[in-house]
Amino acid sequence: MADIRLLGPLRARIGDVSVVPSAAKPRQLLALLAVHVGRIVTIDSLLAELWEEEPPRSAATTLQTYVLQLRRKIAAAVGDGSGVSAKELLVTEHGGYRLALPAESVDVLRARDLITRGQQALAAGEDASGSTLLGDALRLWDGPALVDVPAGPRLRIERMSLEESRLGAVELRIGADLRLGRHHRLLGELTTLTAEQPLHEALHAHYMVALYRAGRAGQALEVFRRLRATLIDELGLEPSPRVQRLHQAVLAAHPDLDPVAVPGGGLPRERAGALVGPSSTASRAPLQSWS
């Protein structure tokens, strides 16, 4: 049973045996093949990842050596009696190589599947289910993706894409939790997130709503003040109209900001969605959705 983890330090095991190379470039090779598990990664893509714009004359031969080294590790992990050879797991294809493992053996693919299912649940109005699925996806992260792997152009793009996916999932999950009336439990998390992401308007808006609903309107206004100062200092921009409307709502103690109890402890989507979620359809609401 293979288990490859890219959402944090690189870890790859077949059974109980690690197949992670110690040298930098073979680690890059394994990481790029794992990101594209089940699909061919061309030799040109691998050469560009490992040597960027200046591959040496021996690059193609050196790549074959790295593949051989990785196959040796795989062979040692699967053992002689498994009935599967290393060449069947790391396959040579016309023009490239393919890591022939199930998609669910790689944490990146599991996370993407959970995020997709969470988004679908939210779109269907199932906030509790969506929050659970997105939370399950986010728990797969054990730090920045590929944190200990040298990155060429392909892996740099993957890192950025995975970080955007993580932040998007966080934003959606927190929005669902706010609609479910879970504002008190979100305060600590949002304190950290807004410190880590000082320009992320949606997370600051979530924090403002959570603080307001916890009876801390003054702190909600202070969050807006800090966000506005940072945006002006760093980018020369005012907060978006959506966040400015939320600020005005806090100042006016607008009723759409108040949590409303419903059976099961959640919030009616047509009430809360105008402020804390992406799925509001209440066109008559004075505040449009900002997320």
Walk me through the topology.
Elements: E1 2-5, E2 11-14, E3 17-18, H1 24-35, E4 40-42, H2 43-51, H3 59-78, H4 86-89, E5 90-93, E6 96-99, H5 107-123, H6 127-138, H7 153-179, H8 183-196, H9 201-213, H10 217-235, H11 241-252, H12 269-276
Antiparallel strand pairs: 1-2, 2-3, 4-6, 5-6
Helix pairs in contact: 1-3, 5-6, 5-7, 6-7, 7-9, 7-12, 8-9, 9-10, 9-11, 10-11
Strands in their spatial order, largest beta sheet: 1-2-3
Low-pLDDT ranges? 262-274, 276-291
- What is the percentage of strand-forming residues? 5-15%
Distance between the termini: 40 Å
Radius of gyration: 24 Å
Indicate the percent of residues in helices.
Answer: 55-70%
- Quaternary class: single chain
- The average pLDDT score comes to 89
Largest sheet: 3 strands, antiparallel
Structural class: mainly alpha
State the order of secondary-structure elements, H for helix, E for strand.
Answer: EEEHEHHHEEHHHHHHHH
Q: How large is the count of helical segments?
A: 12
Broad shape: elongated
Number of strands: 6
Any descriptors?
DNA-binding, 3-stranded antiparallel sheet, BTAD, 6 strands, transcription regulation, mainly alpha, 291 residues, two-component regulatory system, elongated, WH-like_DNA-bd_sf
